[in-house]
Amino acid sequence: MVKSNSINRLSTALQQDVVKIAGKTIFINPFLYWRRFDQNTNRWLREPGQMSDEQIRPNRNRFYPEIDWGDLTSEEILLKDATIEMFLKTLDLISTFHPHLSSGQMLEIERKMSITKKIPFENWVKKAFAKKKRLALKEKKKFQRERFISQWKEWFSLESTHQAILPIIVMIFVSAFIGWSAGISKNSCNPYFEQTIKNNI
Questions:
Q1: Global pTM?
Q2: Which residue, among 54, 133, 123, has the nearest Cα to 86 in the 3D structure?
Q3: pLDDT, tens digit, 9 for 90 and up, residues 116-172
């Protein structure tokens, strides 16, 4: 029963990822074309921000006709624009890998994508933004750490630093020596200390 449910879920997912056009199976999930990608295409697809505003903005009402863009926050606009970018990239890939498709067939594909892929694309974009934010934070911490170490190295290499530190180091060694000498002197005046030495002899 569990196996049957898993198969049904997989079948439903695949139905949302493909469309039949003139007897041919067309993937509308762009990541299903990954075997045919080179590294540049893979990076172009996976990284938001590869398309300009001039390419994205004219398509806002095309993919989100129900939205009043003036009511959205800047973060929501960023998310929607990145999702539109995913739609445009996917359509570009489909037309590249299926050049035989007519404009009417591409329109049919686009309609199905708008229904089935909008939420999955938005979720994927959210994950991509979160990953990008984590990487940026990691790079920032790395830069700050390297800068801190570099500044300390630069400070230690200055002649004025050497002149300032040398007396401090000498004072530390002198204080340590005086403390050690005082400890030895105190123990040598201790009868128990002397008795212990005699017993050992």
A1: 0.65
A2: 123
A3: 999 999 999 999 999 888 887 888 788 788 777 877 677 666 666 666 676 777 677
